[in-house]
Write a structure and sequence with these properties.
Layout: E1 2-4, H1 7-11, H2 19-23, E2 31-37, E3 43-46, E4 49-52, H3 60-67, E5 78-80, E6 87-92, E7 98-104, E8 108-110, H4 117-121, E9 126-130, H5 136-150, E10 155-159, E11 179-182, H6 189-200, E12 204-207, H7 213-224, E13 228-234, H8 238-242, H9 245-248, E14 254-258, H10 261-267, E15 272-276, E16 284-290, E17 293-297, H11 300-309, E18 313-319, E19 327-336, E20 339-349, E21 370-376, H12 380-390, E22 393-396, E23 405-409, H13 410-415, H14 417-425, E24 430-433, H15 438-448
Parallel strand pairs: 9-13, 9-16, 10-11, 10-12, 12-13, 21-22, 21-23, 23-24
Antiparallel strand pairs: 1-8, 2-3, 2-7, 3-4, 5-6, 6-7, 14-15, 16-17, 17-18, 18-19, 19-20
Helix pairs in contact: 6-7, 12-15
Length: about 450
């Protein structure tokens, strides 16, 4: 990994009495932020903990000196430094005078997402969960660069607070060839998300800090249009999203369902249960537990369903260190009083797991030039978008007898014996998918063409 932090550009904006101490500090490259509060000693916060930088107390003149050397503060009380990723946030008193500054160090770290490169290549939407300050913005900045430069995707970044690409009108080099759309006001983020899709034809949209219902709705709309999403939100684990009503729709939403007596008895549950409402906008969730240990949910739909049923669920933990091989562990979690608890390790390997492939029920190489598809338990719009994107001639039909093949979800196809019997009589092949995703449908179509 290599790091570009432009720390000198931040230090030179601070009062002179801090320059020497910061420039000669043994852990200079591990500074997270510098805090200047009126009447208090200046403080630096490192990964190992806080440390005072001087015996001198911060004065009004010190704060004024610094604020005049950074950009103008926005309505969110944030400012930046031209052509860097640093963020300066201010605290104001009742008279709206600045009496405190938090100078957060922004770093572009190249190579940090090699541990999840296979997930990016799957073209599925990815949501990153983590506490504030854990490095989510740094991760999606590097994701944007890799997708734009190395995978040659059309990438648009929705940069609401200018943390991803910096304060300048010219984006920081850390995002590579990715394009950046700035947001005038935080409350307009959802509008810019939709505008990006409608006006600029992106293949990937990058969003930092999804937090409101309107932003969640915009993310779902973008996902329905077949655009890959990479976003972040606050939370420790997948359970936090389930219990957060405004954000739950990112993973399909949760609803109460009342079962019949027979169905409740068959399932061995109560009559009123929680179920997922729809398929998730994000197919993959990454929990940033620590900087070198991430928990991966490669099938969010399955993880959510298992959680709601109270069953064990399997997550993948990827651990990495500089100059060492990446370790991938499969870990089983059980539900205990509403919390996820690790119970057992099953696997430890030093290479990537394969992306799930669509499973076929019959093997067929289509000879016809036009596909006549009978979709079962799948969105017609989703299939249309995938096939149009791939340039295939096709027709969707509601009549099985006219179909040249049937595509559906495996769990639903298993239960429909009549459909399978009719297809067998007419010698119509059935292809099943484990999950609803653009990537799965594309892999299936490539196989049967």
């Amino acid at each position: 990994m290599t790091t570009n932090d432009d720390l000198e550009k931040l230090i030179e904006k601070l009062p002179f009495f801090l320059h020497y101490h910061l420039n000669t500090h043994i852990y200079k490259d591990q500074i997270i932020e510098i805090v200047l509060d009126l009447g208090r000693r200046p403080e630096a916060r490192f990964r190992t903990g806080p440390e005072y930088l001087s015996q001198k107390l911060v004065s009004w003149q010190d704060l004024d000196y610094t604020t005049k050397r950074v950009s103008k503060f926005s309505t969110e009380n944030r400012a930046g430094i031209e052509r860097t990723l640093h963020r300066i946030s201010c605290i104001r008193n009742r008279q709206f005078l600045i009496n405190g500054l938090t100078c957060r160090v922004g770093r572009a770290i190249f190579g940090t997402i090699s541990v999840i490169r296979d997930l990016l290549e799957s073209e599925q939407s990815i949501l990153i969960l983590g506490k504030p300050g854990v490095g989510k913005t740094t991760i999606i900045r590097e994701i944007a660069r890799v997708l734009a430069d190395e995978m040659e995707k059309r990438v648009i970044i929705i940069d609401t607070s200018n943390e991803i690409a910096g304060e300048s009108d010219i984006p920081h080099s850390g995002i590579g060839r990715a394009r950046r759309m700035q947001v005038a006001k935080t409350e307009l983020q959802h509008q810019i998300m939709i505008e990006a899709v409608e006006n600029h034809m992106p293949e990937v949209i990058i969003i930092d800090e999804i937090g409101t219902e309107l932003e969640v709705l915009a993310a779902r709309t973008i996902a329905e249009k077949g655009v890959q999403l990479v976003g972040t939100t606050h939370g420790n684990c997948l359970e936090n999203l389930i219990k957060n009503p405004p954000l739950a729709d990112l993973i399909g939403g949760i609803q109460y369902v009342t079962l019949s007596d027979d169905e409740a008895k068959r399932r061995g549950t109560q009559k009123s249960i929680l179920e997922r409402k729809a398929y998730p906008a994000f197919e993959i969730v990454i929990e940033i537990n620590q900087q070198n240990s991430w928990t991966i949910h490669e099938d969010v739909k399955l993880s959510i369903d298992s959680f709601l049923r109270g069953d064990n669920t399997v997550g993948q933990v990827r651990q990495f260190n500089l100059n060492e091989k990446t370790k991938i562990k499969s870990e089983r979690f059980q539900i205990n009083s509403g919390s996820l608890i690790k119970t057992q390790n099953y696997l430890k390997i030093n290479n990537w797991g394969l992306i799930n492939q669509p499973r076929k029920e019959k093997s067929l190489k289509l000879k016809s030039k036009t596909l006549v598809i009978y979709p079962y338990s799948l969105s017609n719009n989703l299939i249309k978008e995938v096939l149009l994107k791939m340039g295939f001639k096709f027709t969707l039909t509601n009549e099985i007898r006219k179909a040249s093949l049937i595509i559906g979800l495996k769990k639903h196809l298993k239960q429909n014996f009549k459909l399978k019997s009719l297809a067998q009589q007419r010698k119509i092949p059935i292809y099943s998918l484990n999950q609803v995703s653009i990537y799965q449908i594309m892999k299936l179509v490539h196989y049967i063409q």
